[in-house]
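User: If you would, consider this record:
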Amino acid sequence: MTGYRRRRKGESGGSGSFWLSFSDMMSVLVLIFIFVIFSMMFNLKKAQDDYVTAHNEYELAMAELDESRQENANLVILLGDRESQIDELSGKLDSANEELKETKQQLVVITGEKQNLQSELDSSKTVIIDLTSRVESSEKELIRIRNYNTQLENENAALSASSENDKRLLGSYEQRLKEAQMQLDALLGVKSEIIQQLSAELRRNGINVDVDPQTGAIVLPSSMMYNSGKSELSVAGQQYLDRFLPVYLSVLLSDQFDDYVAEIIIEGHTDSTPRAGYADAYLGNLDLSLQRAEAVANYVLDPNYMQYQLRLSPSQMEQFRTIVTTAGRSYSDLVLNADGSENSVASRRVEIKFRLIDAESVYATRQIIIN
């Protein structure tokens, strides 16, 4: 019994030593394994660093390679330019050789011409001798011419007497010029006074329209007078004429100015827009502008209108009918914007103008006398 226990104890002690050895061995293996892992990680990190370094060097090498390629390309272009320059210089050299060849040929020609000139010089000496003889003859002719000049001076003295008559004639012309200028100034004064009174009367009657200070022309907008593309007077146009024309005629047909007024002109104007049905834009608009002017004339020259709306006397009615004229101007006198382009709205208009008696003839007479 005692021996059995000892044997068990011995077996139990041996087993403990075994497990202790096994545990130490496993610890050693774990340490080895950790060392191997650490070594592998260290090598991996080093490999990664080597890879990054190699990659950077590769990119740098590629950049240098691209730069080298660019430099090579530039060198190729430069080489091409040099070749072109060489070709150009070669061409110039060929041209210079040709010019030198032509110069040599011209030198041969010039040498021949020099010989010809020498021959001509020899001939000129003979001509000089002949000219000397002619000069002597010319001196004799000069004496004759001097005698002739003396004769002309005598004739000029006779003409001086007739110039007095020319001076008297010039004085007559100057007097006529002064008279024509006085008549023109008088007419201009009348015209200026008519324009001033027209402007004042229109303002006093509340009619907002501009009177040209130089010509006295009054512009009536087409948009107010007619419908687009039409020639018939609109209701608004008729109403405007009913207000405007009595004031206008109260000045022009007044006792102060009626003897001076030769003509009242109604002018139609259009823009350059082509009209349907007309092959020629100018002729189409000429027809429209004349129709519009005539529409105004037909409206205001109606006997009942002159008598009851304008309140003209029979003599004034007769005078008004004889001095009213119409004209169509198409788009020959366009109104332009500041930039030079066409102002279509302003170009479509009717202008009322007046002309004084003999204004043109007085001005024409003055111009004839001046000329």
About this structure: Residues 16 and 22 are 10 Å apart (CA to CA). The two ends are 176 Å apart (CA to CA). The longest helix spans residues 2-204.
